Amino acid sequence: MDLTPTPTQPSPPESSPTLDDEAASLPKLFPIPALIIAAAAFAVILPMFWFGIPSGHDFEFHMNSWMEVLGQWKQGIFYPRWASMAHYGYGEARFIFYPPASWTLGALLGAALPWKIVPGAYMWIVLTLAGVSMFLLARNWVPRRDAIFAAALYAANPYHIVIVYWRSAYAELLASALLPLLVLLVVRTEQRAWKSIISLALIVAAAWLTNAPSAVMVNYSLALFVVIAAIVQRSPRMLLYGAAGVVLGAMLACFYLLPAVYEEKWVNIWQVLSPGLNPQENFLFTMINDADHNQFNLLVSTVAVAEIILLLGALFFSRRNRRDNPELWWILAAWGSAAALLMLPFTVIFWQYLPKLRFIQLPWRWLLCLNVAFVLLVTLGLRRWLPRLLVCALLLSTLVVVWYKQPPWWDRAADIAEMIDNLQQDKGYEGTGYEGTDEYVPTDADPYEIKQDARKVAVEGGGKFRLHVQQWAPESKIFTVSVAQSGHAVLRLFNYPAWSVEDNGRSISTKTREVTGQMMIPLQPGENHVHIVFMRTRDRTLGAAISGASLLLVMILIACGKWRSYSSAKNGETRVAQPSPAVG
Predict the structure, then answer these.
(1) Mutual orientation of helices 118-138 and 32-45 as an angle, nearest 10°?
(2) What does the CA dihedral 276, 278, 169, 251 come to, rounded to 10 degrees?
(3) What is the CA radius of gyration of the chain?
(4) In angstroms, rounded to a whole number, what is the distance separating the alpha carbons of residues 124 and 467?
(5) What are 98-131's pLDDT values in tens digits?
(6) Interatomic CA distance for residues 246 and 357, integer angstroms
(7) Cα–Cα dist 211/66, whole Å
(8) How far apart are CA 186 and CA 237, in angstroms?
(9) Is residue 520 within 8 Å of residue 494, measured between CB atoms?
(10) CB 59 within 8 A of CB 415
């Protein structure tokens, strides 16, 4: 198999793929391509105007997160860490472990729009961004109208529709906008050297801050890309550029990444691989003793098989690009093939032994990557519109079949209003909270043994007591309790190492109630003025420091690069402007 490029390669149509021209080529996105991409994204969400909001697997998780983040912003908490209303008010460390990009965007939309239209607005924005990302990639190798086709197809591809209507995996959907840019940057890396390291680092950091399983896929995909690029370009430096981008990207995201890694031991994070969610049970067409799991697995497997078959056809028809654009073609071919193979059971050994691969959980998540290769190969291989329309018709018919076999679930405005009431915390009314997530619960707690109607503070063993709760905010609790004898205050709050407790201004140690995991505070006879604060732990401080230092490094490198470019240009102009010596 010869991966080396031919001595002569045709120039790409209309625009040059060098990054020096990138700023000049970006305006070509407007207005027609942007309008068509936005229209394609709007077509995806159009059924919501008749049926309501699709309530997929993760819908309530994301909606509750968005509402809670907005509520904490209103209380002056800029970066939430503790989801105080989860598990019906006992709380969980959700925002330490779940990346911030999706819940930040969702909360911003909730601040500007009625909650009943926020999911639709979120999906339209994200699908449009994904289409724009694909347009910027495709435009470097195909004419403008073909790039528009690729962008529209990518925005409305079948797996995106599965995410929108059956999964509601909003963070994963947002990560799809990063993948075409990853391909684009790798192909251009040799042209930009250190500039590309910064660009790759920004993509890697954005992936970590968007969706952890997608970030794992991005890192493995980047490793594959740079190996292929190093072979095609005969440049081992590509491996160094890729490694530098991965390391710098992780450092930029360290304010999130380090606490998430360090504090795993404080929660039941192993629940992410609980029965039904591990890779072995989610290969294509895998059946287990769970009817709902089997039904959805059949749905997504049907979509995956249709895309894999069409991918094979696109590989065949685009094979001439092995000579015209060898680096791009081999990257797309290897990426799409690897993504397809990792969905099949015989690759289980890779899922077991490759670092962190099992935390992707669901092998068919690789459709997120496969779709980038699939869309661009279809665009490169099928230059006539009739075959392209046939591909779109086949994909649409597949979606019609799975929709008929398993229609989505829907929520109405009344369901959203109930969720709002459950999180209400102002005007003298406090909601009941929501169910929460098992993997973010502290290790000593069992959320299925708690009492949903428990008091905020209950006193045990102190005899007669007087209790006054002054404050019960997400990251700060203040109450005063007077007891006749020693006892304990049992709180409607899961104990977590980041909680710091003071009694009458003196730091004290807490206990954890067996089974339920509630915080227990020892009380001394007399008046106890208790103040509980969610502290900034050392891992969070260190992570923020590393991210800040990395960002400063990036800014310095960018400034130095611009200064060198300016100096070179100025020196060149000066030399041109100098008059030639007079000839006698």
Answers:
(1) 140
(2) 150
(3) 27
(4) 50
(5) 999 999 999 999 999 999 999 999 999 999 999 9
(6) 16
(7) 15
(8) 12
(9) no
(10) no
Six-digit token string for 199: 């660009």
DSSP lists the bridge partners of residue 184 as: none
Please report which residue ranges of 165-208 form alpha helices under DSSP H: 170-175, 179-192, 194-208
Any idea which residue has 């209507």 for tokens?
165
| pLDDT tens, position by position, 170-222 | 999 999 999 999 999 998 876 666 788 899 999 999 999 999 999 999 999 99
| pLDDT on residue 256 | 97
- If pLDDT is split at 50, 70 and 90, which confidence band does 566 have? low
Nearest-10 Cα torsion for 363, 45, 311, 215: -40
One-letter amino acid at 514 equals E
Closest to 82 measured CA to CA, from 70, 69, 95: 95
Other CB atoms within 10 A of residue 200 CB: 28
Closest CA to 249 of 558, 553, 496, 26: 553
Within 8 A by CB and 6+ apart from 2, the residues are none
CB 474 within 8 A of CB 84: yes
Contact predicate 354/223, CB 8 Å: no
Q: Is the separation of the CB atoms in 459 and 481 below 8 Å?
A: yes
CA 95/CA 79 separation, integer angstroms: 8
Burial level of 531, CB count in 10 A (0-12/13-18/19+)? middle
Supply 459's token pair.
């006193």
Strand partners, 523: 487
In this structure, which amino acid lies at residue 188?
Answer: R
Buried-exposed string 495-527: b where 16+ CB fall within 10 A, e elsewhere: bbebbebebeeeeeebebbeebbbbbbebeeee
Q: Any idea what the Cα angle at residue 497 is, between residues 528 and 494, rounded to 5°? A: 70
Which amino acid is present at 335?
Answer: W
Which helix (H) or strand (E) segment holds residue 466: the answer is: strand 465-473
- Could you tell me the two tokens for 173? 């959907």
Residue 18 clears pLDDT 50, i.e. is over it: no
Under 8 Å between Cβ of 206 and 182: no
Residue 82 to residue 475: CA distance in whole angstroms: 7
